[in-house]
Write a structure and sequence with these properties.
This protein has eleven helices and ten strands. By secondary structure, it is an alpha/beta fold. It folds into two domains: 66 residues, Chemotaxis Receptor Methyltransferase Cher, domain 1; 189 residues, Rossmann fold (3-Layer(aba) Sandwich). The strands form two sheets. A seven-stranded mixed beta sheet has the order 6-2-1-7-8-10-9. Strands 3-5-4 form a three-stranded antiparallel beta sheet. Helix 1 crosses helix 4 and helix 2 packs across helix 4. The relative contact order is 0.13. The chain binds S-adenosylmethionine. S-adenosylmethionine binds next to loops.
Amino acid sequence: MNITDFDVYKDLLKEKSGLVLTPDKLYLIESRLNPVTKKWGYENLDAMTNVLRAVPPKELVNDIVEAMTTNETSFFRDNKPFEIFKNTVLPYYMKKAGGNKNLKIWCAAASSGQEPYSIAMILKEESSKLPGWNFSITATDISHEILEQAKEGTYTQFEVQRGLPITLLMKYFTQNDDKWSINDDIKHMIDFKYFNLLDPMSGLGQFDIIFCRNVLIYFDQPTKKDVMERMSKQMADDGFFFLGGAETVLGITDAYKAVPNCRGLYAKAQSQHIIAA
Ligand SMILES: C[S@@+](CC[C@H](N)C(=O)[O-])C[C@H]1O[C@@H](n2cnc3c(N)ncnc32)[C@H](O)[C@@H]1O
């Protein structure tokens, strides 16, 4: 693929999803887009690139964006954020509760569901300490295909072996041949929906806790800033914001401050409730 063709994909991905494609990812374009070329019946990648230069069908653009997203995830990925959620964030809400026992969580860029299901299992495990509480988990992603997998909640042996404690596997999953399906009581805790982080967020409502992990690394600095700042507007004043291990707000936005001793956890800059683990 020559550099002019590469630019067609680079510009399209940046505009439609925020993903930044660097020239070292040239090999990715060819390997990931070959199935799209076949699905749409184009003779080769050059033929599809020519269609993209004109006015391409919306569905083709969606297929290309989906093919180029990286959906890598696992249950309790990096573990520490989930420990912080259980041992620091949840106790904060239990202590402050007053009359309000509603907690709204948004798992943005949820991929195939392991992250929101991990959160839901923690809430289920902690439920005896949380009588009368209502939880809602909204899990979103830009990829329709990955959302279907997430909603299905069925995982291979390899996937359940990555990060999921055996006790939770036995308690919350049912084995069907060589696959494991998450039980309905966990599944029903989550509302999966399509959402592009570049789109206006106000329609999603307000959240207490936002998980936005391992997606902003694929965006450029202005896009990261824009997404983080718009997310802060969707977050309660004493809300919490989780980022991935390789992500930070430092040097990007002043909308948040780091919560001491809780790597990857942030609070709104103006909040008074900063907690120490
Ligand atoms: C690497 S996965 C991270 C999954 C999970 N948050 C985790 O940390 O394990 C990144 C996800 O972000 C999604 N994504 C990429 N661009 C997006 C966008 N503009 N809006 C919403 N989701 C996006 C991809 O489809 C993919 O499922």
